[in-house]
Inverse folding.
C-alpha cells in the first residue's frame, strides 16, 4: 500500500558551495569534477574561501565538497605541495579550519569529502551541522573500475560509523550509471537498514546521472523521467516516513516527484555554482516556489528539525542554530 505523504512543507536550504579541491583518488567514468591534469587541478585558497563566505548573502549553509583522499590521487604531489604551502598537513586539517571560519562568518558547515574513517568523522563532527556521503549504488559497476573509494562495503561502513557518532547524515542514489532496477531497490533497503539501526539519515537524494564532456560516459543517455519517478516511488515505499526524499531542482522537474513522495529540494545558492553539475544552474527561490506550487516551500537549516529538537549538534555551532532556528525547527523568517 502506498504511504500517504505527511510532509506539511517542501523544504530547501540556502548554501554557499565550496569546492575545496578537485584532486581525487577515484576516476569514475561519469565524473566531470575530478581534475585530469595539473592544469585543471586546484586547492581553494584561504583568500578565495573568505571572499565566498563574506559575500554569503542569505545563506546559512556552507557545503564543503572535495575529491576523495587527494593525498592518494595521481595528482597527489600537486595537492601535497599546495596543502603544505597553505600551512596545513592534510585535507582534513585544512577543511576543519575552513569550517571554523565558516562558523565565524555565520554559516553552518556540511561536509562531503568522500569516504572517511571513524576518527576523521569524529574530528569533523564538532564543526559540522550535518555530513554526507552518496551511496550511489551497491552494485559493482564498470563505471567504478578505477575508483577504490566506490567499494560498497567501505561506503556502508562510513555511513554506519556516522550513525554510531550520531551525525545527522545525507546519502543518496545516483541513477543511470549502469545499475539495474533491482540494484536501486537493494540500495534503498541498505539505507533503510542503517537508519533503522542508528536513526541518523536525514534525507536520501535521488539524483539523475547527467553526461559530462570529456568523460567515458559522455555519450550515455541519462535516465528517463519515468525511471526517476519509479525510484522516488520505491524510495517512499521503502524508507521510513521521517527520512526525506530529496530531488535536485536543477537536474529534474520536482513537481511530479513531489507528488510521488519527494519532500526536499536540497541546497540552492545565490552566489556559487553547482560545481558537480556546473551546466545546470540552481533556480532562484521565487522560481522554486512556482515550480512546487501549490505546495508550500519552507526554508530549513542543514540540520533537520528533529535533530535540532534532540540537541544533536556540538556546542561550537549551537549559537548559530539558536540564532537561525524558529519554534518549528526551520529557519526564522526574519533572517530571509
Amino acid at each position: 500500500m502506498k504511504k500517504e505523504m505527511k510532509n506539511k512543507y517542501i523544504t530547501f536550504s540556502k548554501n554557499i558551495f565550496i569546492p575545496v579541491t578537485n584532486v581525487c583518488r577515484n576516476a569514475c567514468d561519469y565524473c566531470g569534477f575530478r581534475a585530469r591534469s595539473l592544469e585543471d587541478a586546484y586547492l581553494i585558497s584561504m583568500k578565495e574561501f573568505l571572499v565566498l563566505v563574506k559575500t554569503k548573502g542569505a545563506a546559512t549553509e556552507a557545503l564543503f565538497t572535495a575529491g576523495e583522499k587527494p593525498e592518494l590521487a595521481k595528482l597527489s604531489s600537486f595537492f601535497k605541495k599546495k596543502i603544505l604551502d597553505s600551512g596545513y598537513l592534510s585535507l582534513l586539517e585544512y577543511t576543519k579550519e575552513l569550517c571554523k571560519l565558516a562558523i565565524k562568518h555565520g554559516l553552518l558547515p556540511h561536509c562531503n569529502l568522500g569516504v572517511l574513517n571513524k576518527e576523521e568523522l569524529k574530528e569533523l563532527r564538532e564543526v559540522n551541522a550535518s555530513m554526507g556521503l552518496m551511496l550511489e549504488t551497491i552494485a559493482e559497476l564498470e563505471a567504478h573500475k578505477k575508483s577504490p573509494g566506490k567499494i560498497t562495503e567501505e561506503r556502508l561502513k562510513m555511513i554506519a560509523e556516522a550513525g554510531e557518532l550520531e551525525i545527522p547524515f545525507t546519502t543518496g542514489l545516483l541513477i543511470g550509471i549502469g545499475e539495474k532496477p533491482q540494484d536501486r531497490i537493494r540500495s534503498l533497503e541498505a539505507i533503510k537498514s542503517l537508519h533503522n539501526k542508528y536513526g541518523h539519515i536525514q534525507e536520501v537524494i535521488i539524483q539523475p546521472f547527467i553526461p559530462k564532456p570529456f568523460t567515458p560516459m559522455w555519450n550515455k543517455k541519462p535516465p528517463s523521467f519515468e525511471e526517476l519517478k519509479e525510484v522516488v516511488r520505491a524510495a517512499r515505499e521503502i524508507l521510513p516516513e521521517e527520512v526525506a526524499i530529496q530531488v535536485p531542482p536543477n537536474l529534474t522537474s520536482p513537481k511530479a516527484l513531489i507528488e510521488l513522495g519527494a519532500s526536499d529540494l536540497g541546497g540552492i545558492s545565490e552566489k556559487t555554482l553547482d560545481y558537480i553539475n556546473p551546466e545546470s544552474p540552481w533556480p532562484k527561490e521565487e522560481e522554486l516556489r512556482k515550480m512546487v506550487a501549490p505546495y508550500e516551500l519552507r526554508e530549513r537549516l542543514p540540520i533537520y528539525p528533529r535533530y535540532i529538537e534532540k540537541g544533536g549538534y556540538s556546542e561550537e555551532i549551537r549559537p548559530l542554530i539558536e540564532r537561525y532556528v524558529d519554534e518549528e525547527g526551520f529557519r526564522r523568517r526574519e533572517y530571509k
